[in-house]
Amino acid sequence: MFNTSDPRKDLLKNKSELSIFNEAHLGKFYEETPTLSDGEEKTWVHRGQNFYVLYSECKNGVTITRSEQLDEYAIISPNKNAHFTIEWQQTITEVRGEKVIFVPPGESVINFLDDSNIVRLITTINKDLNEVTVNNQSYNTAHHHIPPFQSWPDPVDGYKVRVYDLNVAPDGNRFGTIYRGTTFMINALDPLEGPRDPKKLSPHSHEDFQQCSLAVEGEFLHHLRWPWTENKNNWQEDQHELVHSPSITVIPPGVIHTTEAVGERLNRLIDIFCPPRIDFSKKNGWVLNADEYPLPEGDDKDE
User: Fold this and answer.
1) What is the CA angle 163-73-255, rounded to 5?
2) What domain of life (predicted)?
3) Is 150 exposed, middle or buried (0-12, 13-18, 19+ CB in 10 A)?
């Protein structure tokens, strides 16, 4: 259910046919022990069905290498003071501030030129991260109601490191600031100063994909409701999860959810989808880099 002013209000709504629902997963980086730590780099690793989320706090001089990356991956740089470079195929790209970056397959190297926090998004076809992922055992058996992952078509002008600005002026005809690559869609919701109006929430659900909500600044209440099915043994209590920043919340398919910003200062949330969402991609003007990344064959052009 969307408010009449919400640009998502006319998206197709499907009646859920799920009979069993998975639990939500929370990664509260601010209170957890890092998965990987050497004093200069601290990294927390969590996952969903199709993706890993690696949140890293890195000191000036740290180098991170992906030597055998099988597909395109994404980086979110949420801090205005961030400064680092990305080297791919002997080309060095400098990144400053709040950005979304898509990095091609193959070897790439991130060199930090200042203390910076970044979030890397990598698909689970890259098996090297399985053993270091906090919640990997939750996916020993695949969640059957999520379709198998499939990358989207290559960019129209070939692979290269692509850098996009997160500081885009809000537009009432668009839902947040959305970029997509071949593997991920990233939607930076419009920042909100102070709490969200509790009379204007947007409870809804997704039929066949997970949503990963990344809190980069502020505090949020994730309201989650599991629909009743004919089997009472599968019923679950509502959850109202308070999270601070930085953290992620992975919301399962079929679960009714809405997020309420409750921080008294600036609240910033970024939604992550793997692979990209077709419905958002078909909305005219919503995906800001749509001219660089085509839709899958057989799908209609953007509306």
Assistant:
1) 110
2) Bacteria
3) exposed
DSSP state of 204: B
The structural domains of the chain, ordered by start, are 25-281 (2.60.120.10)
H or E stretch covering 281: helix 278-281
Tens of pLDDT, residue by residue over 154-199, are 999 999 999 999 999 999 999 999 999 999 999 999 999 999 999 9
CA distance 256 to 173: 24
Give the whole-angstrom CA distance, residue 56 versus residue 133: 14
Ramachandran quadrant class, 218 (left: phi over 0; alpha: psi -120 to 50; beta: rest): left
pTM over 0.85? The answer is yes
Token digits of residue 235 = 């019923």
* Cα–Cα distance for residue pair 211/209, rounded to 1 Å: 7
Q: In Å, what is the CA distance from 194 to each residue of 175, 201, 268?
A: 19, 15, 10
